[in-house]
Amino acid sequence: MARVVVAVMPKPEILDPQGKAVQGALPRLGFSGVTDVRQGKRFEIEFDGEVTDDVLAEVHKMAETLLSNPVIENFSVHVDTAE
Amino acid sequence: MRVGVVTFPGSLDDVDAQRAVRIGGNDAVPLWHGDHDLKRVDAVILPGGFSYGDYLRCGAISRFAPVMTEVVEAAGRGMPVLGICNGFQILCESHLLPGALIRNDHRKFVCRDQRLRIENNRTPWTAAYEKGSEITIVLKNGEGGFVADEPTLDRIEGEGRVVARYLEDNPNGSLRDIAGVSNLRGNVVGLMPHPEHAVEKLTGSGTDGLGFFTTLASEVFQ
Question: To which H or E segment does residue B135 belong?
Answer without folding.
Answer: strand B134-141
